[in-house]
Amino acid sequence: MRARFEKFGWIGIGALLGVLLSLNIPAIADKDNNKTQLPLDDLRAFAEVFGKIKSDYVEPVEDKKLISEAINGMLSGLDPHSAYLDADAFKELQAGTQGEFGGLGIEVGMEDGFVKVVSPIEDTPAYKAGIKPNDLIIKLDETPVKGMTLNDAVKRMRGKPDTQIVLTILRKGESKPLVIPLTRAVVKVQSVKAKMPEPGYAYVRITQFQEHTGEDLAKAIKSLHDQSGGPFKGFVLDLRNNPGGLLNAAVGVSAAFLPKNDLVVYTEGRTADAKMRLTATPENYAKGGAREDYLKGEAADMKSVPMVVLVNGGSASASEIVSGALQDHKRAIILGTQTFGKGSVQTILPMNNGTAIKLTTARYFTPNGRSIQAKGIVPDIVVEDASDSGFNIREADLTRHLANPKDADTTPADAIKPAAPEKDDSKDKSDKDSKADHQAPIEPGSKNDFQFTQAMNLLKGLQILQKKQ
Predict the structure, then answer these.
(1) Architecture of domain 192-468 in CATH?
(2) Alpha helices of 23-99 — where are they, by DSSP H?
(3) Where are the domains of the chain?
């Protein structure tokens, strides 16, 4: 029996060493202190567990599955955003940055063993069905989510177009779980939407930061200028429920409104590659540098037009980079509610076997040195939205979230906090339960959008003040 265990033990050690080599990372106990010895006691423990599973588990388990789960456990135990991506998940991630993929259209995370909705993506099955930020998905069809990895849950939600899945959801304020059937579709995300709500006033909504978001924004601004026939009186940039995306796209969006060479964001991490200072220059946002600068020839008024940025608890990562940069440079007024607080950088590291790891490698900082991590961006003017679910889970609520290196209260003492819109409680509660759950959300940028109308009122007030000066 002992010989049998030792055989499994050496298999386990060899397997772990193979994993370390395949990840292209040094198997060292303490990189900072340049120690090169392997943590042999920990490796022996790993080998012992590996051997016990192989010999005593109730059913045979393939080595590949054990190693895969060990890698997944290493990464998921670090923070909420580091993860192991198998070959299928890696392909789906690559497809998502292109703006087209199959599924329901939900940006999700994991909290307390359940899948948490960060944000539904506009014009997708989930958005149309009334899925809301901070909903907790507890069942997929008849299968409980508790015990699944996030990757497993995402795989179950993905599937062939026109097939159905039933989500069971917990939502704060509801006395019982909501059961919502959804039909999968090919999700084509239009990241930039633009219109002229009133003559002279431009409205642009960015739903996600994708590969071509900066270029699409530049085209949208040009089109709106053509409609306006001259400089804008005011500009609303809507980043609500935008879960983020590509860093270079966030820099490009910021550069559309900031003077050239202004600092947009900087990062700090342990390696040289993790330390960056990204400015509003083509080298940081345009492929091929200045040769493909999509902001070249942009109308001059874009650097000075009165501007409001809309944010809420579903605005995360790249959205927070943009709003933080515009706030620090006093280029725009940030209006809405406190953002999600995802201020960490995830680097996708492809492996030799077609898989990848998503590893947190740095933290984001705004131009003035504020860390976004677990704090988010506090609006200059706080305006609550009557349609908010009230279940405001943010980065700071997630298990194992990274700490903010400048951990102190960052809420401005002079933040303006007008009253929230009044909610109509006159209807019978049973009527609310039966109808409100699946109502389509309010169209962003419409007259029923309270935060948007407040932004427009603010811009018009600024116009009046400018004329009096």
Answers:
(1) Alpha-Beta Complex (3.90)
(2) 40-56, 63-76, 87-97
(3) 2-61, 100-188, 192-468
Instruction: Please tell me the CATH code under which domain 100-188 is placed.
Output: 2.30.42.10
Kindly list the distances between the CA atom of residue 249 and the CA atoms of 192, 212, 215, 264, 322, in Å, as whole numbers in the listed order: 12, 7, 9, 12, 10
C-alpha 309/C-alpha 296 separation (Å) is: 23
Stretch (H or E) spanning 324: helix 318-328
Structure tokens at 348: 């996708």
Instruction: Return d(Cα 225, Cα 213) in angstroms, integer.
Output: 18
Handedness of CA 16, 268, 216, 287 (dihedral sign): negative
- Token pair, residue 458, equals 């603010």
* Tens digits of pLDDT across the chain (469 residues): 444 444 444 444 454 444 444 434 443 334 444 445 778 889 999 999 999 999 999 999 999 899 989 998 999 899 988 999 988 888 877 766 665 667 898 888 887 788 989 888 888 899 999 998 889 999 999 999 988 888 789 889 988 889 999 999 999 889 999 999 999 998 877 899 999 999 999 999 999 999 899 999 999 999 999 999 999 999 999 999 998 989 999 999 999 999 999 999 999 999 999 999 999 999 999 976 555 899 999 999 999 999 999 999 989 999 999 999 999 999 999 999 999 999 999 999 999 989 999 999 999 999 999 999 989 999 999 999 865 544 466 787 777 788 888 765 444 444 455 544 544 444 444 444 433 344 556 889 999 999 999 999 999 998 776 666 5
Q: 169, 391 in Cβ contact below 8 A?
A: no
Residues with a known catalytic role: 317, 328, 342
The alpha-helical segments, DSSP class H, found in 77-164 are 87-97, 125-128, 150-157
